[in-house]
Design brief:
With 316 residues, the protein is an alpha/beta fold. It is built from twelve helices and 13 strands. The strands form three sheets. It has a six-stranded mixed sheet. A five-stranded mixed sheet has the order 5-4-3-12-13. Strands 1-2 form a two-stranded antiparallel sheet. The termini are far apart. The structure holds zinc ion. The site of zinc ion has 6 residues, from α6.
Length: 316
């Protein structure tokens, strides 16, 4: 009974069987005109207090600030008209690493806020390093999947093909090489499908950006190792992918590789730079993707600017 209930009503486990049950392929594989979605990253419940107290690794028992910010994000999304097609959260949902003390409570508190998202705006979850660990294992990935759905999957919305990837398998697969292999095989199959189906665009979501600004930049905590990055970027570029939307950096950034755009969005939660807590609005037109990062205050008080709304309205 629990499984049936989860399939029907649980908004947190809609990614199952490597697809998103919120959208049926047969209804969604054809282009019907411009639409938009909302991308957020790193609510990372528990980081703000832990960061201030000089203990960024292990979390803390207080995360009221992140709860308020996530609530603000949900309220802003619920006010939008027309409604976005979905709300994707690009990883680091909570701060507590697998096995840490506060994890269960952080997860529950986050779900209590996210469940107020408009029922017509499906939630799409992407796993981050804090969700499955810097070097994930079968157990940490299984634990994540029970709470938030599959760690990688694909889905169609209005003629656009979306791929959600587990970037920890690119970052460090030393504890689960077979799972990395499985995602690689799956990704190749998906890219082959996309090629055959003549979709308008292919868009990727993952937590860790391949690079932050320049495809040749040095490797560090916030991007992927150069050879891994090169291989993925070349593969995605060859498959005709338009953009990779990411988080992890807690600052806005981005760049491009042979016309493939890497978009790095700042956090809903803790900021590590000069940006504000915010969300990115992504408008998909027949020719291109237009996106803009809005502060939560801006989005709550003014909504999306008219110029973007006009583009979306042209579908009518
Ligand atoms: Zn991260």
């Amino acid at each position: 009974m629990a499984a049936a209930a989860a399939a029907a009503g649980d908004p947190f486990v809609r990614a199952r069987g490597r697809t998103l049950t919120a959208f049926r392929r047969d209804d969604e594989y054809q282009w019907k005109g411009p639409f938009y979605f909302i991308q957020g990253a790193d609510p990372q419940v528990g980081m703000m207090k832990a960061w201030k107290c000089g203990n960024p690794k292990d979390g803390d028992d207080e995360w009221g600030e992140e709860m308020k910010l996530t609530e603000q994000a949900v309220q802003a999304i619920n006010k939008l008209n027309p409604k976005p097609k979905f709300f994707v959260l690009c990883g680091d949902l909570i701060h507590g690493m697998p096995g840490s003390q506060w994890r269960k409570k952080q997860e529950q508190d986050l779900k209590n806020v996210l469940k107020n998202t408009d029922q017509d705006v499906p939630l799409v979850f992407v796993c981050g390093n804090h969700d499955i660990g810097n070097a994930p294992t079968k157990e940490t990935i299984d634990g994540y999947s029970k709470s938030w759905g599959d760690d990688y999957f694909s889905f169609w919305v209005g003629g656009v093909f979306f791929l959600v990837l587990n970037s920890q398998l690119f970052f460090d697969s030393s504890q689960c090489p077979d799972l990395k292999q499985a995602q690689d095989v799956w990704l190749d199959e998906q890219l082959a499908v996309a090629k055959e189906q003549k979709c308008k665009h292919i868009i990727v979501f993952q937590h860790i950006p391949p690079f932050l600004r320049n495809p040749d930049e040095e490797h560090g905590y916030f991007n992927l190792k150069k050879p891994v990055r090169q291989e993925i970027m070349e593969k995605l570029h060859k498959a005709g992918i338009k953009a990779v939307f990411t988080g992890h950096y807690h600052r806005n950034a981005g760049g491009s590789y042979k016309g493939l755009e890497v978009v790095v969005s700042s956090a809903i939660g803790c900021q590590l730079g000069e940006d504000t807590h915010g969300l990115r609005v992504v408008v998909v037109t027949e020719e291109k993707l237009l996106h803009r990062y809005y502060s939560l205050n801006e989005l709550n008080s003014q909504g999306i600017e008219k110029e973007l709304l006009d583009i979306i309205a042209k579908q009518k």
